[in-house]
Design a protein that fits this description.
Aldehyde Oxidoreductase, domain 4, three-stranded mixed sheet, elongated
């Protein structure tokens, strides 16, 4: 073929020669290495609000998310489906952290919730339909005007859920509960004497 070099090397062969440096000139050091630092003129942060409505069963302590609304500003949106997927997945992760996921250790530090039989991860049936929207305020610190989107759902959802539960339990004098808000933990808080 025209333009095909007479000799070729695989990436593994190039890496080996760079590492062992058998045939490098004496004034050159081995290894392929490059470092570059980016110092943007300023940082920008996405912003928004997440609101959660829950119902707590007074007999069992079970928390059911009845409605979840999220509005985020992640700057200029290049691919709406990707942004929506990141927000939806983040909300599911935050709901799981707030209500279900719990790493439990015994008195010797041994993990006793090390399988999916012991560590609750929500199923699709346990996650509500989200109502999402967004505004677009372009970031002034990059040419695309984009901001972060991957963490908005994760960061906002756990406190939104926990605050909704605490608000529901506040007439019973409950002011604080540590995550996860399992049914047993919520039931005990409601029935404290």
């Amino acid at each position: 073929m025209k333009g095909t070099p007479d000799k070729a090397k695989t990436i593994q062969e190039v890496a080996l020669q760079a590492a062992v440096a058998y045939s490098l000139p004496h004034d050159m050091e081995p290894f392929l290495d490059e470092t570059s630092y980016c110092h943007p003129p300023n940082c920008t942060f996405p912003f928004g609000t997440h609101v959660c409505l829950v119902e707590v069963d007074k007999d069992t302590g079970r928390v059911e998310v009845k409605r979840y609304i999220a509005v985020d500003d992640v700057g200029k949106v290049i691919n709406p489906m990707v942004v929506d997927g990141q927000v939806h997945g983040g909300i599911a992760q935050g709901l799981a952290q707030a209500l279900y996921e719990n790493a439990v250790y015994d008195e010797n530090g041994q993990l006793v919730s090390g399988s999916l039989m012991d560590y609750a991860i929500p199923t699709a049936a346990m996650v509500p339909t989200y109502e999402t929207a967004r505004t677009e305020t372009p970031s002034p610190t990059n040419p695309l005007g984009v901001k972060g989107a991957g963490e908005t759902g994760t960061i906002a959802s756990a406190p939104a859920v926990v605050n909704a539960v605490i608000d529901a339990l506040s007439p019973m004098g409950v002011k604080h509960l540590d995550m996860p808000l399992t049914s047993e933990k919520v039931w005990r808080a409601m029935n404290q004497k």
